[in-house]
């Protein structure tokens, strides 16, 4: 696609696409009316057999159509009219990157604020001074130091230090508190990701951070539970909600081996369904707990009640086989406690 031969075979395609997406202006410019990139230049996409093959600027496509050849290597398409969305080939010319920058500088287009280019870049004596320049001067009422510079996609501030991009709150700890212990992370007390106030930070592990997040109800399962895919919508789902409910209903009359043959699923997979380890959002079973043998009889009664509710008022057969070993032992020890379920 990048060679001269490959781009020229799409000239008629580009010509048809170009005609549909611009409107003539009084000053002679052909204004691009469709998709534009972040700098305001028009964008065209070349498709073939339902797949996108190349993304190309509209002005470059216009030059290629007019000259019936690809743009030479090391050259760029420049605008005489200084209108980035113009695709009129009469307003375009070829030049090097250096030519384009010199033309841009000559016409005062290097910045939307022309005064800023006349001022020299500010220099800082220390990294701490450069860091504090990126913190809002007006501190929040809650004491947060709001980061006003670059951020990562998670919403945390980032700072360039020793030629590496590092989270700003970690740099704040290093500058004002000290070194971060190995295998530790820096957490926020104030729950403000943009805060870099060292008094609002503390050292912890990933587990401690997750527990703190859960206690403050900031976990996605607590704030937006509807966003968590469950059942057949989960990416790792191997079956459908309908089949899982069928397995659950038939579990009182069929063994694991029989269910495994009927539904072509592994025995362990079916066992996890029937014990609440998986698919408990569909079956309604309580969440599986590994140390289930240590449960109190009252806790087992709650679980047994839910099991019986989904099994026509009776406990399913083969509790040990289905993973409820602790429940089976509890029934043998306190049979009177579970009599009303039978």
Helix content: 25-40%
Percent strand equals 5-15%
Give the count of helical stretches. 15
Q: Taking all residues together, what is the mean pLDDT?
A: 82
Task: Kindly report how far apart the N and C termini lie.
Answer: 73 Å
Return the string of H and E elements.
HHEEEEHEEHHHEEHEEHHHHHHHH
The low-confidence runs, each spanning 5 or more residues with pLDDT under 50, are 1-5, 113-119
Beta-strand segment tally:
10
What shape does the CA trace take?
Answer: flat
Structural class: alpha+beta
**Rg to the nearest angstrom?**
33 Å
Q: How many strands, what sense, and barrel or not for the largest sheet? A: 2 strands, antiparallel
User: What is the strand arrangement across the widest sheet?
Assistant: 1-2
Please provide a written account of the structure.
The protein has 342 residues and is an alpha+beta fold. Helices cover 35% and strands 13% of the residues. It has 15 helices and 10 strands. The protein has helices spanning 4-8, 11-19, 58-67, 97-106, 114-118, 127-132, 168-176, 206-215, 220-223, 241-250, 256-263, 267-275, 280-283, 297-309, 325-333, and strands at residues 22-24, 30-32, 43-48, 51-57, 75-79, 92-96, 158-161, 164-167, 185-188, 201-204. The strands form 5 sheets. The protein has a two-stranded antiparallel sheet with strand order 1-2. Strands 3-4 form a two-stranded antiparallel ribbon. It has a two-stranded antiparallel sheet with strand order 5-6. Strand 7 and strand 8 (164-167) form a beta hairpin.
């Amino acid at each position: 696609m990048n060679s001269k031969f490959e781009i020229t075979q799409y000239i008629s395609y580009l010509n048809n696409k170009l005609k549909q997406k611009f409107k003539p202006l009084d000053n002679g410019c052909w204004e691009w009316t469709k998709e534009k990139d972040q700098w305001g230049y028009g964008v065209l996409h070349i498709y073939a057999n339902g797949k996108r093959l190349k993304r190309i600027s509209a002005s470059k496509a216009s030059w290629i159509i007019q000259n019936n050849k690809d743009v030479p290597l090391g050259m760029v398409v420049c605008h005489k009219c200084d209108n980035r969305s113009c695709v009129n080939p009469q307003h375009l010319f070829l030049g090097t990157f250096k030519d384009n920058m010199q033309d841009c500088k000559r016409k005062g287009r290097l910045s939307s604020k022309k005064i800023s280019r006349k001022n020299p870049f500010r220099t800082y004596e220390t990294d701490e001074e450069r860091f504090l320049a990126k913190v809002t001067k007006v501190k929040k009422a809650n004491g947060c130091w709001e980061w006003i510079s670059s951020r990562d996609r998670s919403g945390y501030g980032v700072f360039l230090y020793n030629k590496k991009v590092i989270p700003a709150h970690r740099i704040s700890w290093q500058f004002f508190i000290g070194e971060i212990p190995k295998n530790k992370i820096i957490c926020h007390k104030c729950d403000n990701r943009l805060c870099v106030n060292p008094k609002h930070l503390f050292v912890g592990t990933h587990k401690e951070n997750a527990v703190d997040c859960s206690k403050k109800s900031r976990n996605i399962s607590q704030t937006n539970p509807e966003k968590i895919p469950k059942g057949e919508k989960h990416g790792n789902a191997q079956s459908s909600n309908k089949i899982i409910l069928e397995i659950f209903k038939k579990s009182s009359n069929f063994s694991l081996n029989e269910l495994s043959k009927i539904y072509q699923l592994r025995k362990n997979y079916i066992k996890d369904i029937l014990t609440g380890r998986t698919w408990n959002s569909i079956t309604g079973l309580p969440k599986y707990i590994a140390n289930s043998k240590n449960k109190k009889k009252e806790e087992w009664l709650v679980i047994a009640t839910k099991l019986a509710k989904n099994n026509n008022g009776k406990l399913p057969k083969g509790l040990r086989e289905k993973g409820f070993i602790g429940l089976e032992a509890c029934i043998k020890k306190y049979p009177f406690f579970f009599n009303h379920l039978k």
